[in-house]
Amino acid sequence: MKKELIKEEKNLFPPQKMGNSRRDFLKIGGLVVAGSGLLLLSCNNDDDNVIVPPGEVFDLGSGDLGILNYAYALEQLEAAFYTKVLSGSYWMGANANEKQILEDLYNHEVIHREFFKVAITAAAPSADKVLPTLEFDFSSVDFGSRDSVLGIAKILEDTGVSAYNGAGKLLQNTDYLLIAGKIVSVEARHASAIRDLINPGSTDFAGDDILVDLAGSGKAYDKATMPSAILAAVGATGFVKTEFTADNLPTS
Amino acid sequence: MNIIKLLESLSNDELLNKKGSRRESINHFKNAGKNIALASIPFGLAATSNKSSAATMSMATAAIQASPTDVLNFALTLEYLERNFYQMGMDTSGLIPDGDKDVFGQILKHEVSHVNFLVAALGDAAIDEPTFDFTGGDLNLDTFSNYQTFLALSQGFEDTGVRAYKGQAGALANDNTLLEYALQIHSVEARHASQVRRMRNEKGWITQSETTIPSTFSAIYGGAIPESNTTQGGVNLAGMFDSYGGDDAITEAFDEPLTMAEVNAIASIFIV
Q1: ipTM > 0.85 (yes/no)
Q2: Closest chain B residue to A164 measured between Cα atoms?
């Protein structure tokens, strides 16, 4: 299945909607990755495992289905990352505690990913409304480096928390809302553990660097970030190779 | 986001001016919670629903759910409990080792913020602060003289808090502002829970309904939908992930809600 090379230059979001993706991306929390690009690319020219027909770009869709596809995309990203972690030299040589934590995170994210696949397949009116399996490129990450692996894990988990928090109000079906609630607190547990591995015994597990203030009561709240900003940030990492759009997600 | 917006949101609530005593609130929660069993609708069914029909079918419980004011007061009760618990812990000389004081200082700071936020949001509708007894009355717990007991209760309160907020998401579903605030608190409680669990050499996440805190508090991990639940969105995931940590990992990957009644039964152990 061939894709037009010109697609590689196509932006995920129209500029007028997206604004400056780098700026948005920095705004939501320092998701800086060496060598990251601004685009989600579709450079799968030699890949025959893509469901989206040539010339078509998958759109996440509208309503709850769109939000579920959005969550599925994030879970695919996390699961793919930890899959790479567990085949990397840092993890293989890590102490038993860190190995167990990262293996648990891998298991949880794979379960989340597969759960969404099953759930969305059941919920979607047709199979072509289900986000396909995405391709990822983690070549910018040094999986032999503890700092690199834990640093990216922290970003992904914190991003997951703010993404689910921001998506809650966009869901119409309260069963989906409860599911999101069941998952977001696990992502927060992950974020806390990763942050404590990086800086043990500190306040970082729920640090002032990531929490925000509400109504002047102090920094004691996780962020709640809209999908547009999350996807801009994810796009800016350069991790996601498969192009998709989010033109029809609910915004309120 | 500001408190004015929140208050505007609350002002639509007919119960805003009904300032119930804590006891009234607790009783109300108990009654409300009695019949609550969150419906598990298979995704295939729910998927075809638009907003109204989804609301009807997916939350058969909606009619008996608490008002937003009741939910906020319920949350405030738990935040009062946590704030007092950590304040007393930090104030007790020799209880918390120096190496752990940053962690508990940070948690205390958050609980103080949560209390202040909820009190401001509720205004005159805010319940009075209950009187707490962290020995658990007849349980005679050595909470502030034995650090291990303090840690165990901390874990219990944080995990209960996570499950309590989660259980009220549906009740706030029609108020986007309040729902988002609640979610923003909910995940911070989960960060706390993970940290304290790991300080006790437990995993940061909950496996099955296992716990190493005293069995008196097994309800913290039990309930109508226990932490050991493997059915999500109407799909029983048990046995589907044997290469990925198995059923234990499934239960870890999803936290579960507690009803108001279930939470109040736990909290009431420490309320005089």
Answers
A1: no
A2: B183
